[in-house]
Design goal:
The protein is mainly α. The chain folds into three domains: 60 residues; 81 residues, no CATH class; 30 residues. It is 73% helix and 7% strand. It is built from seven helices and two strands; from the N terminus they run H-H-E-E-H-H-H-H-H. The chain has a two-stranded antiparallel sheet with strand order 1-2. A hairpin with a 2-residue loop joins strand 1 and strand 2. The longest helix has 32 residues. The chain is flat. It starts with a helix and ends with a helix.
Length: 187
């Protein structure tokens, strides 16, 4: 959301239309338009709904099923595998960071601000090296166990009649909503 806001915040200043407000900033005069504010509101609402949909999807779906679905939707295999490894090893990295933090705190993490920043920098470098080495060991172990570049699961998801019914009903709901909005705006 911050990235969307950072990009979309400039739209009201560059979109042409009826001026909502004009401001002097040093030597520049900037104007905000009503149409620009409407576009900004539209973009922020869509981004917010997308984020909420993503949260709902990831909360209600197992990660293995989600990755398998992405693979069936023809998302590049490399991206699916990166997501898979990221999910599996993020917990390992968090544990490693907590262990390093506990070791740092047990050594009386004090001193000047420069000393603390140097210590944290060293911890980040050490974490990177440990992660890289662990990744190499895991990859070698995966190759030894017959890793072929894609995840293998026992069950395959297929498109069933219930999925078709849901898709049709959802599409009809969107179409009806659009029709009612058009009728409402013309009245």
């Amino acid at each position: 959301m911050p990235f969307v806001l950072m990009i979309a915040i400039f739209i009201p200043f560059f979109k042409e239309g009826e001026i909502a407000g004009s401001y002097n900033i040093w030597f520049w005069q900037v104007s905000i338009t009503y149409s620009g504010l409407q576009v900004l509101e539209n973009i922020l609402a869509k981004a917010w709904l997308s984020i909420l949909s993503l949260i709902l999807l990831t909360s209600a779906t197992k990660i293995a099923s989600l990755l398998e679905g992405l693979e069936q939707l023809r998302m590049p295999r490399v991206m699916v595998m990166i997501l898979s490894f990221m999910y599996r090893y993020i917990f390992v990295l968090v544990d490693e960071v907590l262990r390093m933090k506990q070791a740092r705190d047990s050594r009386n993490f004090g001193g000047s601000r420069l000393w603390q920043m140097r210590t944290i920098g060293n911890m980040i470098g050490t974490l990177f090296i440990r992660s890289y080495e662990r990744g190499e060991r895991v990859y070698a172990a995966m190759l030894a166990r017959g890793y072929a570049g894609h995840s293998q699961t026992l069950n395959r998801h297929t498109f069933r009649l219930a999925d078709a019914c849901f898709s049709v009903s959802f599409g009809l709901a969107i179409i009806l909503n659009s029709v009612f909005n058009l009728i409402y705006k013309t009245v």
